[in-house]
Design a protein that fits this description.
With 101 residues, this protein is mainly alpha-helical. It has one domain. The protein is 76% helix and 0% strand. It has 4 helices and no strands. α1 crosses α4. The longest helix is centred in the middle third of the chain and has 35 residues. It starts with a helix and ends with a helix.
Length: 101
């Protein structure tokens, strides 16, 4: 359970960051590097679409990760430690976001 909580937390942090950018665009309160997005309503819609798609992919990955952890837990002894295959949850969350773009 703690491993899944860590995965969920990491994914939520990535999407909170992305949503913060999107909200900044809506409030016209973003850094100069994002000015093109700020003034293009179409680009904002596309960004939001990509964000929703990435969040869906992320939820699918988390569901499969939950199943994987449950299967590993059932097969492992109490002394075995379950580790993420890549060892980097942030990478999984960011890759999910990038793949959606």
């Amino acid at each position: 359970d703690s491993k899944l909580h860590s995965d969920v937390s990491t994914h939520l942090e990535v999407y909170a960051w992305a949503m913060n950018i999107f909200c900044g665009l809506q409030q016209l309160n973003v850094p100069p590097s994002l000015l093109l997005l700020r003034h293009s309503q179409n680009s904002q819609h596309k960004l939001f679409s990509v964000l929703l798609h990435a969040m869906t992919d992320s939820m699918n990955w988390l569901e499969s990760r939950q199943q994987e952890i449950q299967n590993e837990t059932a097969a492992a002894s109490d002394d075995d430690e379950i580790m993420d295959e890549t060892g980097d949850d942030t990478t999984n969350a960011v890759l999910s976001f990038i793949q959606a773009t």
